[in-house]
Structures are given as structure tokens and as C-alpha cells.
TrEMBL record:
NCBIfam families with a match to the protein in the record: IV_pilin_GFxxxE
Protein location: Cell inner membrane
One GO process term, biological-process aspect: protein secretion by the type II secretion system
GO CC list: plasma membrane; type II protein secretion system complex
Domain General secretion pathway GspH: 49-151
Domain of life: Bacteria
Keywords in alphabetical order: Cell inner membrane, Cell membrane, Membrane, Methylation, Transmembrane, Transmembrane helix
Name under which the protein is recorded: Type IV pilus biogenesis protein
Range of residues in the leader sequence: none
Naturally occurring in which organism (per UniProt): uncultured bacterium Rifle_16ft_4_minimus_37862
Topology class, membrane: Single-pass membrane protein
Transmembrane segments: 12-37
């Protein structure tokens, strides 16, 4: 009777079973890591492009709400909004630094793929269509933000 009782108390896994599980987890981790890293980099570029599109849309909304033209300028990792014209008054408000910059997070770089600036009219239309490009600082992956002449901003 004592041996059955001792056997009932001896529950658990053997060392060999634990090692097999640890090796399986290791192999799955090695196989999944490249896909996970690629997904992470692509999603960070997508997030940067959506952030840039939001800043450009902010310029459009500012033009409509203030009934004036607003120029959206991009320099490296930040965006500036100027009311009146591209040489006009620098917009400072919520979400901007004291210098009027709207910075992109994660070190994303922004530039114009076509055009040099976007000017929104008081009705929200863009004076000319333009394409802005967001580039990941380490991988070089890019994503485009397209501004149509009607003022629509979309990520491609």
C-alpha cells in the first residue's frame, strides 16, 4: 500500500520531456523571429505615414476653420504649417513645439516625392497635387502619402 501512495505523490515531468519542450520553443522562436521583425518594421513605417497624413489633414482643417490658405512644409523629421502663404505666419498650437514644428515619432524621415509644399485653400482644396514620402531611418522602407488636388489625403 505504501508504494502506491508514494507513486501518487510523485507527479511531474521528466527532464527529457522538459528539454524537448524547451527545444521546440527555441526552434519556433528562431523560425518566427524574421517574420516578426519584418512585420514590426512595416507597421512602424505605416504608423509614420498615418502620422504624416494626420499632420497634413490638420493643415487642411486649419485652412477651412480660419478661412485662409495654409502651407504645409516638410523638413526631415518634422512638419510646419504656415497660414496665409508658404512665407506666412508660422502656426503654433497644440501638438506643435514652441518653434511650430510637428515632429514625427520614431525618427521617421519625411520628404516630398513630388512637389515642394502643399497649399490648402480656405475651401480645403490643395493648390496642386503632391506626394510625400516617409522613410524608416534604419531599413530605408518607404510609404507614400498622396494629396490630391481636391484636398483628399491618403496613405498608399
Amino acid at each position: 500500500m505504501v508504494p502506491e501512495r508514494i507513486r501518487a505523490l510523485e507527479r511531474g515531468f521528466t527532464l527529457a520531456e522538459l528539454l524537448v519542450v524547451i527545444v521546440m520553443i527555441g526552434v519556433l522562436s528562431v523560425l518566427a523571429a524574421p517574420s516578426l521583425i519584418s512585420y514590426w518594421q512595416a507597421s512602424s513605417v505605416q504608423a509614420g505615414a498615418e502620422e504624416l497624413a494626420t499632420a497634413v489633414n490638420r493643415g487642411r482643417q486649419l485652412a477651412i476653420s480660419r478661412n485662409t490658405t495654409v502651407c504645409v512644409q516638410v523638413s526631415s523629421g518634422s512638419i510646419t504649417l504656415r497660414t496665409g502663404s508658404c512665407g506666412g505666419t508660422l502656426f503654433t498650437g497644440a501638438g506643435t513645439t514652441s518653434a511650430g514644428l510637428i515632429p514625427l515619432t520614431s525618427g521617421m524621415q519625411a520628404s516630398f516625392a513630388s512637389g515642394t509644399s502643399v497649399v490648402f485653400t480656405n475651401l480645403g482644396a490643395a493648390s496642386t497635387a503632391a506626394t510625400l514620402r516617409v522613410t524608416h531611418p534604419t531599413t530605408g522602407k518607404t510609404r507614400d502619402v498622396v494629396v490630391s488636388a481636391s484636398g483628399q489625403v491618403r496613405v498608399q
